[in-house]
Each structure stands twice: as structure tokens, then as C-alpha cells.
């Protein structure tokens, strides 16, 4: 587990003024990675690092000779058109690159003159998914979400007996993971109304959101090898925001006996910026399990993991309806939660995924599952917020929402803050739902 170091010092200031305002998601203590190019251009996609409201164009910075020694190889990897190579290198090269970037971006750095021409304003950039995602696995790590959903689908037996023993997951689909800002059409699917004799094909009328975190795999493991709990984080590159859109009318008709399928694989939106585990070092929290509940099996437990296996990350889901955008009113909050409420940690997800020898590869995406907290205002899907569609959400402008409507924008945000550490954030994960195709 990475301990806080000189790159986390809250007193650090950057010569990029917007990094020092105390409210940016991207102060010098964060330094997340994305793949970008200038908006509307045909430039090649390349890696960038966020600093304030700017992006360090890594390809330009490498060409400007800013990196040398052990920092050169990871800097070159971070300049490529995907982050897979950087992810594959493992934590140490990425950590050396972070230290070098931190120094180069600090006030008074001799690299300021060389780096200044390498800056691109975030407002003038567009993004693509940060890496080639070979495989996407979605977990179910919030016991609050599992219980809320279980109550709707199985009122007499909400939490399945395996839940407190196994980090439950299923294999999702990587090809439909899209980047924030990329719109998608409402899906069609088989739906069967209660009491109907037969299903029919229709656009989903119960489109939902799922506020999750994306856990990006760093270095992989060979087929047949498992990764122990204390080595698991060496295989995690970083985290991003993730909206796993779900069609709640397609789901109940198709999910038995083999699990989620077309209700889940039409679109999942990931935020462009990947925040490294090292950046999150000041925000680690203990992993605890109530004494009266089953304790994790030994391959999912260790003293180091108990001490700091969790993350203190605030997470928020908001909606901006077409009317709200037309009237220029602020997006309305749907839910506010914290990743610390998860029943299973990122390390446990990875250790469990590989315990049978399954090989994870650089750039694989592990979704945490909907990160609902213990109270209704921390419920991170509309199916929970509306009690299965019975109680619409009242928005501040008087509009009601039971499910996501055409034109609605859903915005996810995430940030970490506490006394004695710099506030860092994840930027935004935004998706607008377009009408179903004819
Ligand atoms: Ca999900």
C-alpha cells in the first residue's frame, strides 16, 4: 500500500495558477492521466496529465526534453494513444513519473519554460476512453444496494446467502464502455409487463443510472496465477467515475438463470481522468466488518488490508434535465455517498477475480457496482431512490423523475477532502440519453 510522500504535501504550489485555487479537482497533488486531443481536430490521441484547468500534453513534453533517466520510459508510455503500456509497467515507473511531474510543475521549477508551450486548456480538449479495455467485470460491492435491489426482486429473501462471503460479480461487455460526453440512444429490448401473456420488443421505459467507480487494472497476472490480497493493489493503476446505465424493464425478464445481459451492455460511461492509487494515498481508510457478520476468508483478508483497504471518496450523482439546461439552472443532486461504505474493497475484488487463476490484463476494467450508502439519500440508482418506480424524485424546479427521460444529462462527480491533505477530485462523468432509434 502506498504511503503519502512529498508529492502529497498540501503546501505544494504550481506555476499553473488555476491549480492553486483550493477548489480545483486537479491540484498538483493529484496529477491524473487521460487520453485527449484538441476538440474538433483530427490530431492523434495522446496522453495528458491534468493540472488545474490545463492538460500537460505528454507527447509535447517528452519532445521538449522534460524527462530523463528512469522517468523517460513511463513518460513516453504516458504519451501514447492509450494508457495500456503505462498501466502494464506497474506502480514504480508511474510513481517515478509522478514525482518528476510534481517537481516540474512546482513553482520555481526550471522546467516551467519548456513545459508552458506543452499546455492545452481542458476547455478546448476532447477525450476518448483512457485505455483499450480488454475485459470489463462488474461487481456488486455495496451491501446497501444489494439489499435494496434484492427487496424489490425478492421481497422475502433480499440478500442472497453468498453475499457476505463472495465479492459477487459478472462479466460485462467492454466494447460499449464510452467516455464522458459521448451520448447514446435509449436501448430497445424484450420487456414483459406484469400479467402479460408474452413479452414484446420496445424501447426501455425504465432507464436507470448506476453510480460506480471504475477500477483500472495495471500490470496483469499470468493465466493460472492468483494475486494475493497484499499484492492486489500492485495490479491496480487507478480509479475513475463510472455510470453503468441499466434498463430496469429488460433486466427482470432476462436475468434468470444466467444473470445480466442486454439490460446492462448498451452503454456504460467512464470519466476521462484516471486518478492513480498513489494520488489517493492520503485518503485511505480502514476496512472493517461488523463482528457479528461473517469475516472474509483468509485470501480476502490481511492486517495491512484491515488497516487501510478502503478509500474515503465522496461521490455525487446529479441530473440536468433539458428544461433545467434551457433555464440555465444548476444540476440537481440525486444522491451523495462515499466509497468507504463498500462491503468489499478494490483489493478484494482483484484478489477474488484471480483466485481461480483468471488472468487480468492491463487496462481491464472492474466496476465496483452501484455504491449506495446506508441511507435513502445515498442510494445511487433511481430504482432505489423511487422504490422501484413507485415514488418519483421531486426536482427543485418542480419536475418529477421516475426514470431517465430522453435528453436528460446525468453527471457524476467524485472528490476527496480532509484537514491536512490537499483536496483532489475526479472531474465529471457526463452522459446524455438520446431518443431510441426508430
Ligand atoms: Ca452495475
Question: Portion of residues in helices?
Answer: 10-25%
- Main sheet characteristics: 8 strands, mixed
Distance between the termini: 51 Å
Q: Work out the count of structural domains.
A: 2
For the record, the CATH architecture of the largest domain stands as: Alpha-Beta Complex
Morphology: globular
CATH topology label of the largest domain: Fumarylacetoacetate hydrolase, domain 2
Low-confidence stretches: none
- Assigned CATH superfamily of the largest domain: Fumarylacetoacetase-like, C-terminal domain
Number of discrete helical segments: 11
Task: Give the overall average pLDDT.
Answer: 97
Summary of the model, kept short:
Helices cover 17% and strands 25% of the residues. The protein is an alpha+beta fold and 438 residues long. The chain folds into 2 domains: 6-128, SH3 type barrels (Roll); 136-434, Fumarylacetoacetase-like, C-terminal domain (Fumarylacetoacetate hydrolase, domain 2), CATH 3.90.850.10.
Structure description:
The protein has two domains: 6-128, Fumarylacetoacetase, N-terminal domain (SH3 type barrels, Roll), CATH 2.30.30.230; 136-434, Fumarylacetoacetate hydrolase, domain 2, CATH 3.90.850.10. The chain is 17% helix and 25% strand. The protein contains eleven helices and 26 strands. Strands 6, 7, 8, 13, 14, 16, 17 and 22 form an eight-stranded mixed β-sheet that branches. Strands 4-3-2-1-5 form a five-stranded antiparallel β-sheet. A hairpin with a 7-residue loop joins strand 25 (409-416) and strand 26. Helix 2 packs across helix 4 (91-105). It starts with 32 loop residues before the first strand and ends with a strand. The structure holds calcium ion (CA). Calcium ion binds at residues 138, 210, 212, 244, 367, 369-370.
